[in-house]
Amino acid sequence: MATDVPNVKGQKCESKLTNNISKMYATIPVLLAVLCYINGVPGDFVHDDVLAILHNRDVTGESDLLAIFYNDFWGVSMQDSTSHKSYRPLCVLSFRLDYYLSGGDSRWFHVVNITLHAVVVFVLTQVCLNVLKMSSLATLVATSLFAVHPIHTEAVTGIVGRADVLAAVLYLLSFYMYTSAVTNFRLERDVNDNLTESASASFPAKQLIRVASSMALALAAMLTKETGITVLGVSLVYDLITSRKHVLKWLKPGLTAETKQFISRITIIIVTFSCLLIMRMGIMNFEKPSFKHEDNPASFSTSITTRIFTFNYIAIYNFWLLLSPSLLCYDWTGGSIPLIKSLLDHRNICTILFYSVMIWSCWRCVRKMFLDQSAVEKQLRLFLLSVSLMVIPFSPASNMFFRVGFVIAERILYIPSIGFCILIAQGFQILCSALARFKSIFTAAMLALMLVMAAKTVCRNQVWESRETLFRSGVRGLPQNAKVHYNMGNFLKDEGNKTGAEYHYRQAIRLNPFHPSYHSNLGTVLSNVNETKECYMTALKLLPDHKNSLFNLGSLLIDEGDSAGISLVQHSLNKDPNFIEALLVMGKVMLKAKNFSAAESYIKRALDLNPHRPDVRFSYGYYMHMTDNLDAALQEYQHILALHPNELTSIQNAASIHSDRGNLIEAEQLLKRALNVKEDCEDCLSALGNVYIRMGDLKKAVISLAKATHLAPNSTKIHLRYVRALKENKQREEAREHLQHHISKFPQDFLAIWFAYNLSMEENRISD
């Protein structure tokens, strides 16, 4: 009797082919994720990276390891009133490990971010294939789109975006683990409908382990980025959708074992969410973070209609950025999105249309799934899950529950974009199935879209290369945003371009005249002292306790010899005891007053806060110099120069110590080095001339001092030193003529007149 023998060899070949295709579909998006971001590796630490990493003692290893769990993302104590309350210890821990391994090399941080992005893409592939049961083509589209989407540039290339990327890894793993608990329990019951009591008890144990693992990963995601807690909401929606028949049986008597397990899972999610939320609120003492009007203007509006209209439009604008990421910016605060103050604003039409379509679509899906038992269940389930993955992670940033410190932040769209990409892939799959004859056209269009997005991502990476490229892109993209002009002004000021800095500060003030920092920083680049004071006073009128304005005005008054400035600087220090600049100024004031114990207290406090800052090390060296501890002072100057070879003042002071000790060759070498840094340094030329006089090389002394007198025509000290060099070089006539010329310009210069008298006495020319 003939029997049908299964083609085992054929089945194995088919299975092998399927596995190869799956591996290919998993590999391509991962490669795209790496290739699109690889050009961002050379980028420096920029913008928020500087505060969160370079200036964060929890990252650099200067604080105790446990401090990470007491401080916020920026290294400020969670109990501090100035803290942003962003508690992300696992992300900070990863930064600390990177800093330890790389020595603070930004390239290492970028490589880790790109690697994590690739991991997210890989895990997303598994979720799409194994959890959402998407086709290989739809999975490839969703994951490839996610891999190359330009909206992720801030999260991946911006180093502090690590919080979002690492949280996404944990987010997807938590979701995957939860869905495996649901799916595996259902599969086991399908295999054997007549389970014994002992067998039935064993399955919940396995399920409980998976659910517990999911909850633990959700906790880890939350400790990486606050958004991580929302994975519990997504898991809840998944369970409600896939176990919907148990929802309908919930209130009926005689619950099945599977329905009881469903209720248990939902209960675990709700209890876990409540506990995590209470824990998170407790960490911040149940206090809300304080933000400025500029951070989120709509949230400060007194009109409830303005808040509702604007917040809903901003949510839609975020969706638009996912759909069309043509305009991207590192900062969307202030006037980036003008407030919607009227019902007649045309932007409300977009809001109404968007929400109408979304609500109608979701309602139809829910109705069909729960009431009609539709045959297209898979598509409906996938639609609802993709919307959930897009909406639920975004909800904390929507201002729906609490005020956030931004209008739009591109990096917070990293996790919500997962749902968006799945939604686009699903739509692409439906189009290809419904209009099969146009499949090649749709495929070509999708490939073109991905190519354009990949190119945009590569270009956007270059924007994050340096402070200059980032800030210039902000001014180009959002010229109506005062903050981008302010940041550009700060950069130009640091570069010594005071004219450019003044322009951008004035633009920032034009757009937002009520921000004290804009006025205060404008004052720092103005040459007119009265205008500078006016800027500082304006800033203090806007905010009497503005520490930078108090410090700037106080420092200016101290330089003018007005003791009132000391109280202003001290006031700024009272506002912020860790204000290093104020500590250094107070240390300098105390040194000048010969109050060495007070000076030591201020300077050592600054040294404890940041021992690597050149100005802090210099102040400590100068303190040692002034207290005649020359060995320690010289050691400090040498330490600074080892790290910052072109630090001019340290070179000069080290040369001064060598000169005082008679080490004239060392002094000469240092002063020449100083002139290589700044060739028109009159003090360096004067000191070098004095060294040459002491070395007996009068010709070189005359040359150096002649240059110094041209650079400092009003300096009596330099001119008299030049006259001395001329005299000792037997150029007495030139010495006398130069001295007479100087006295004719400054007839009240008693020191020059006294020097001329002594010179005449030496030459028996008292009549002169």
What do you see in this structure?
- The protein is an all-alpha fold.
- The chain contains 35 helices and no strands.
- Among the domains are: 161-229 and 244-285, no CATH class; 577-679, Alpha Horseshoe (Serine Threonine Protein Phosphatase 5, Tetratricopeptide repeat), CATH 1.25.40.10; 698-768, Serine Threonine Protein Phosphatase 5, Tetratricopeptide repeat, CATH 1.25.40.
- Helix 10 runs antiparallel to helix 15 and helix 28 (630-643) runs antiparallel to helix 29.
- The protein starts with 7 loop residues before the first helix and ends in a 6-residue tail after the last helix.
- 42% of the residues are buried.
In short:
The protein is an all-alpha fold. The chain has helices spanning 8-37, 48-54, 57-60, 89-102, 106-131, 136-148, 153-156, 162-191, 197-222, 231-242, 244-249, 257-283, 304-323, 347-372, 377-391, 416-434, 439-463, 467-477, 482-494, 498-511, 516-525, 529-542, 547-559, 564-575, 580-592, 596-609, 614-626, 630-643, 648-660, 664-677, 682-695, 698-711, 716-728, 732-745, 750-762.
